[in-house]
Design a protein that fits this description.
The protein is built from five helices and no strands. With 115 residues, it is mainly α. The protein has a single domain, classed as Orthogonal Bundle (c-terminal domain of poly(a) binding protein), CATH 1.10.1900.20.
Length: 115
């Protein structure tokens, strides 16, 4: 008896992955094994970099806060320590936005925190 293979489902699965890889360079867009491996690796990078994106933004916020603090004669670490002591519940994202876009408001926060 001949072996039964579900060709329809297999082709559908392969076409789906090939379609996802449309626009990729070279054989990655039309050769099944290359496309499958490239897609898998791309998904791994996407997962990893969703985490790294958060890390990168936190670093950027810290740099912006530090620049705003230095303009007012305070170090970043002293400022953040005093923010926590004062019980001010502004996160680094908001503080960085104040430092960049509203320097007067940021200076007011520094004066309230650092005595």
């Amino acid at each position: 008896m001949p072996r039964s293979v579900n060709t329809v489902a297999a082709r559908k699965r392969r076409k789906k992955i090939i379609k996802e890889m449309k626009g990729a360079f070279g054989a990655r867009s039309n050769v099944w094994t290359v496309a499958k491996n490239a897609r898998e690796k791309g998904l791994q990078y996407a997962y990893r970099d969703r985490k790294n994106k958060k890390r990168a933004f936190r670093g950027l916020w810290i740099q912006r806060i530090n620049a705003g603090c230095r303009e007012n004669g305070v170090s970043y670490s002293a400022f953040i320590g005093n923010v926590h002591k004062a019980g001010i519940e502004l996160n680094r994202k908001v503080l960085a936005d104040l430092a960049m876009n509203h320097p007067k408001a940021f200076t007011a926060v520094i004066k309230k925190v650092v005595k």
